[in-house]
């Protein structure tokens, strides 16, 4: 599976912890991330990640383009619901495309855990 991992600044720590927790599963898949999220994931978990530009510089749009071309299967996006983002339109566009193309999108840890359990199940089959 091709999995996109994204986190806003105040959620990056939580995403790193989450990636560490599910590292054995993530290792089996192709990982993509926005710039800073990807950098931290690689440095702090050792996972191999294909990095796009940073979110505010177009990274969400690059991932959106992957979605539109059928190249992303799952998006895990730890959003910060309490901080305004300068690139909010890009964020909304990515969320919209996930609905257009019916790509599972987890925007919080609870949903992301459910998606990972599902993925584990698929990996065992
Ligand atoms: O802003 C982001 C998503 O909207 C994340 O971008 P970075 O991973 O570059 O911080």
Automatic annotation (TrEMBL):
It holds the Pfam family MGS. One of its GO terms (biological process) is methylglyoxal biosynthetic process. InterPro entries: Methylgl_synth, Methylglyoxal_synth_AS, MGS-like_dom, MGS-like_dom_sf. CDD domains: MGS. Keywords: Lyase. The active site is at 60 (proton donor/acceptor). GO terms for cellular component: cytosol. One of its GO terms (molecular function) is methylglyoxal synthase activity. The keyword Hydrolase does not apply. It is an enzyme of class 4 (lyase). Coiled coil: none annotated. The keyword Lyase applies. It catalyses: dihydroxyacetone phosphate = methylglyoxal + phosphate. NCBIfam families: MGSA, PRK05234.1. Belongs to the methylglyoxal synthase family. This is Methylglyoxal synthase. It comes from Lacicoccus qingdaonensis.
């Amino acid at each position: 599976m091709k999995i996109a991992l994204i986190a806003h600044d105040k959620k990056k720590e939580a995403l790193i912890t989450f990636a560490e927790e599910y590292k054995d599963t993530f290792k089996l898949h192709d990982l993509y991330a926005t710039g800073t999220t990807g950098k931290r994931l690689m440095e702090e978990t050792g996972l191999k990640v294909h990095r796009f530009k940073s979110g505010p510089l177009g990274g969400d749009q690059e991932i959106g383009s992957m979605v539109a071309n059928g190249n992303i299967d799952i998006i895990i996006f730890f959003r910060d619901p309490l901080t305004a983002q300068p690139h909010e339109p890009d964020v909304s566009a990515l969320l919209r495309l996930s609905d257009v193309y019916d790509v599972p999108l987890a925007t919080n840890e609870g949903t992301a855990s459910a998606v990972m359990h599902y993925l584990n199940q698929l990996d065992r089959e």
